[in-house]
Amino acid sequence: IIFAYRRREYERFGPGRWQEAVEAATRDMIAELRAETPAGRIALE
Hints:
Elements: H1 18-36, H2 38-44
């Protein structure tokens, strides 16, 4: 997550906006965990 700006899906942020890339990657991971894990699905109930 810390080097998210290096990944294709977050490269639009570039190294100068790495904090925004980290935020976007973190939000994406939270959404994925909510959708794909039993504990995450409980949180949605």
